[in-house]
């Protein structure tokens, strides 16, 4: 009976194992880049193209208020923290999406996630652990074949 069940399960397992690593890497990159890109978009005003703002240096007043009163990071001025976080979310999202300097960008996002988890939203660990899983995958396996890193390596 158990051997029969094992045989039945082998075909779907084989199909699932055949999912290309490059597709998994691309999906992880797209997912984590979207998380941080959308966060950056809530922080900036300015030139709008197709519903997206690209003036990463033009922060909302509400962004400064959040960093001053809600986030209140230790050891860093709230204005500097707001600019650094927005700059990282904006440019590292693009880098990960394109797959350029991917592992380094993912490592920086891992550091940001740790800061957010420890100092800003310690109760949000179920969300942050999903981010960490994607970032660890990207750090360990790289961006995959569909990336500028791979294109430049050739």
- Structural class computed from helices and strand pairing: mainly alpha
What is the number of helices? 7
Count of extended strands: 2
- Shape descriptor: elongated
Strand content: under 5%
**Main sheet summary:** 2 strands, antiparallel
| Overall tally of domains | 1
What proportion of the residues is helical, as a percent range?
Answer: over 70%
Mean pLDDT comes to 92
Instruction: Indicate the low-confidence ranges by residue numbers.
Output: none
Terminal-residue CA separation = 51 Å
Strand arrangement across the biggest beta sheet: 1-2
Radius of gyration: 19 Å
Key phrases:
elongated; 154 residues; single chain; mainly alpha; 2 strands
Structure notes:
This protein is mainly α and 154 residues long. It has one domain. 73% of the residues lie in helices and 3% in strands. It has seven helices and two strands. The chain has helices at 2-17, 21-43, 61-71, 78-98, 102-120, 125-141, 148-153, and strands at residues 48-49, 52-53. Strands 1-2 form a two-stranded antiparallel sheet. Helix 2 (21-43) packs antiparallel against helix 4 (78-98) and helix 3 (61-71) packs across helix 4 (78-98). The model has no long low-confidence stretch (mean pLDDT 92).
